[in-house]
Write a structure and sequence with these properties.
By secondary structure, this protein is α/β, with parallel strands linked by helices. Helices cover 48% and strands 16% of the residues. The protein has helices spanning 11-24, 27-33, 37-58, 70-74, 120-133, 135-144, 159-165, 167-190, 195-202, 210-217, 221-234, 247-259, 276-279, 300-308, 327-331, 334-339, 377-380, 392-398, 403-420, 437-456, 461-466, 469-476; strands at 76-77, 82-84, 87-92, 95-96, 105-110, 113-118, 154-158, 236-241, 264-269, 281-283, 286-288, 291-293, 296-298, 315-320, 345-346, 352-353, 359-366, 384-388. Strand 5 and strand 6 (113-118) form a beta hairpin. Mean pLDDT is 76; it is low at 1-7, 28-34, 62-90, 93-102 and 479-484.
C-alpha cells in the first residue's frame, strides 16, 4: 500500500510540526500565535480529525449507545483535536467515560511519526478500581485474556511508514486495536453487568462467509475446508492442474477469504528469468545525485513480509506459474524457513529474517507446462499440493439456462480428456466461461483447443482430426442453442 492516501497526512504535515515546535516550543503557542493557522488546520488538524473519525468507525457500534449500561451509554470517541495539559506539544485522541474524564490511551502526532500508548498511572488506578469493585469479574477477565494486563507502554508508527508503507488503513487499524484492548477495563470498572459486553469485545472476528466461497469456487464444502486447513497448517501450498482448470482464480478467491478485513494479498508471476535477487534481495544499480550506486535492495518477498508484519490478519502471497522459475535458485535460504516457520536466518545484508506467522504462500502450477516430478524434492516436501481437475459442475451452473447444450459440451470434453488420458494435460472448463459462448465457441475451439491438441498429439494426427471443430460442431447443435 505505497503512496499517500488522499486527504491524509503528508510529508508537509511533519515538516510543519518540526518547524513550528522548534519556533514556538510547543503546539499550544503555535495555535494561539502562528500567522500560518490556516496551513496548520489544513495539513495537521484536518487529517487528524479524519483519523479520529475513521478509528471511531472501526469500534463496535454498541460502544456509543446501549440502554442499561452507564459506561457504554455515555462513552464516546472524541472526534476533534484535544490538547492535554501535560502534553501540549501533542495532538491526541481521547476516550471519555461517565465515572471520570479519564484519558487511558493517547495518540500523538510528532515530527517523527505517530505514537500510540497507554497512560500507565491511569491504567494502574483503573486496575485498583476494578479489583475493589468487581474482583470476581476481574479474575474472569484475566483468565479469559491475561495478556491484557501486560501492556506495552507505546507503539511508534514512523513517519516514513505512514507516508510510504503502512498507509491509511493500517494506521487506523493499529490505533483502533489499542482502544479495543483496554476498553473492557473501563466497562469492568463501571458497568453493572460487564461480562457479556467484555466477551463481545474479546470474541473472535466475525466468521468469514464460507458459503460465498463455495459459491464462487464451485468446490464442495468438504474439499474446500480441507484445503483451507492445509494452507493454514502448512503455511504454503501449490494449486496444480492442467490448463483451464481455474487455478489462479481459485488462489485469488482463497486468498480473499483468508485475508479477512485487515489482511492483504499480492500476486507475483514467476518466469524462467526470475531470480533470487528479484525475490529475496540483490544488488541493483541506482542513480543518486548523478552518481551510480549499487545498494543491496530487498526483493519482492522481503518487501511483502515487511508489510505483513504490520497487519494482524492473514496476508497471502500468490505466486502464479510457480514452476516456470528455477525454484531452488529463487528461494535460496528461504527453503529453510519454509520448513521451520518459527526460526530466523541471517541474510547477506547482515539483517536477520523470519517469515511472519501471518504469511501464507499459495502457488499455482500448470502441470502441462512442467510436472511436479520436475520440482526439486526438498522444495516439493515443503509445500502441500492441491490437485485441481476439470470441474464440469461449474459449466452446468454457469450455463444453467442452456441445459441441453452444456451437457453436449461436457460430453465432448469428457471424450477429449479420455483420449488425452493424462490428468496433467486435460482440457479444463475455464476456456468456455465467457459472456457470449454462442459467438465465441468456434474461435475458442479452433484457435485455442486445436493448437493445443496438435502439440499434444503431434504424432497422432488421427486423434486431432476426431476433435476438430468441423467434426464436433454438429454434435453441439450450436445454431439451435441461442434461444434456449
Amino acid at each position: 500500500m505505497r503512496g499517500k492516501p488522499e486527504g491524509f497526512f503528508s510529508e508537509y504535515t511533519f515538516d510543519l510540526i518540526e518547524q513550528w515546535y522548534m519556533k514556538f516550543g510547543d503546539l499550544f503557542n503555535l495555535i494561539c500565535e502562528s500567522n500560518d493557522h490556516e496551513d496548520f488546520l489544513k495539513h495537521v488538524e484536518k487529517p487528524f480529525i479524519q483519523l479520529c473519525k475513521e478509528i471511531s468507525k472501526t469500534l463496535p457500534s454498541y460502544l456509543a449507545f446501549q440502554p442499561n449500561n452507564s459506561l457504554v451509554q455515555n462513552a464516546s470517541i472524541v472526534e476533534k483535536v484535544m490538547i492535554d495539559a501535560d502534553h501540549v506539544e501533542d495532538y491526541e485522541l481521547c476516550l471519555q467515560a461517565d465515572f471520570s474524564e479519564i484519558k487511558l490511551l493517547y495518540i500523538q502526532i510528532t515530527q517523527w511519526g505517530i505514537k500510540g500508548g497507554v497512560r500507565e498511572e491511569i491504567y494502574q488506578n483503573l486496575l485498583r478500581e476494578v479489583a475493589q469493585k468487581k474482583s470476581k469479574a476481574m479474575m474472569e477477565l484475566i483468565s479469559y485474556k491475561a495478556s491484557i494486563f501486560y501492556p506495552d507502554k507505546y507503539v511508534l508508527i514512523e513517519k516514513s511508514d505512514i507516508l510510504y508503507y503502512l498507509g491509511f488503513k493500517r494506521l487506523v487499524y493499529e490505533i483502533a486495536e489499542w482502544f479495543k484492548q483496554y476498553l473492557p477495563l473501563l466497562i469492568l470498572a463501571s458497568a453493572d453487568d460487564p461480562i457479556p459486553v467484555i466477551r463481545q469485545y474479546l470474541s473472535e472476528p466475525k466468521e468469514r462467509d464460507f458459503n460465498s466461497l463455495i459459491e464462487k469456487t464451485g468446490l464442495d464444502d468438504k474439499k474446500l475446508k480441507r484445503w483451507l486447513h492445509t494452507v493454514n497448517r502448512k503455511g504454503q501450498a501449490i494449486i496444480c492442474g492442467s490448463p483451464g482448470t481455474g487455478k489462479t482464480f481459485l488462489a485469488e478467491k482463497i486468498a480473499e477469504y483468508l485475508i479477512g478485513d485487515y489482511g492483504f494479498s499480492e500476486l507475483v508471476q514467476f518466469h524462467p528469468a526470475y531470480s533470487y535477487e528479484d525475490f529475496i534481495q540483490g544488488i541493483r544499480p541506482q542513480s543518486q545525485e548523478g552518481k551510480l550506486t549499487y545498494p543491496l535492495v530487498p526483493g519482492r518477498f522481503l518487501e511483502f513480509c515487511k508489510k505483513a508484519e504490520s497487519y494482524q490478519d492473514t496476508c497471502v502471497l500468490i505466486i502464479d506459474e510457480i514452476n516456470r522459475a528455477n525454484l531452488a535458485q529463487v528461494f535460496g535460504e528461504l527453503m529453510y524457513l519454509l520448513e521451520y516457520r518459527d526460526r530466523e536466518i541471517p541474510l547477506a545484508s547482515g539483517n536477520r529474517f523470519r517469515i511472519p506467522e501471518n504469511v501464507r504462500i499459495i502457488g499455482t502450477m500448470n502441470t502441462a507446462d512442467r510436472s511436479i516430478a520436475n520440482i526439486d524434492y526438498a522444495l516439493r516436501r515443503r509445500f502441500a499440493f492441491l490437485e485441481l481437475r476439470p470441474n464440469y459442475e461449474i459449466l452446468r451452473r454457469h450455463y444453467h439456462l442452456k441445459k441441453d447444450f452444456v451437457e453436449k459440451l461436457i460430453n465432448i470434453l469428457k471424450q477429449l480428456n479420455q483420449a488425452i488420458a493424462d490428468k496433467n494435460y486435460e482440457i479444463g472448463i475455464s476456456f468456455f466461461l465467457t459472456d457470449n459462448l454462442d459467438d465465441d465457441l468456434e474461435d475458442i475451439w479452433s484457435m485455442e483447443i486445436e493448437p493445443y491438441l496438435e502439440e499434444y498429439f503431434f504424432n497422432q494426427q488421427e486423434e486431432v482430426e476426431k476433435f476438430r471443430w468441423k467434426n464436433i460442431k454438429d454434435n453441439l447443435c450450436i445454431q439451435n442453442q441461442q434461444n434456449q
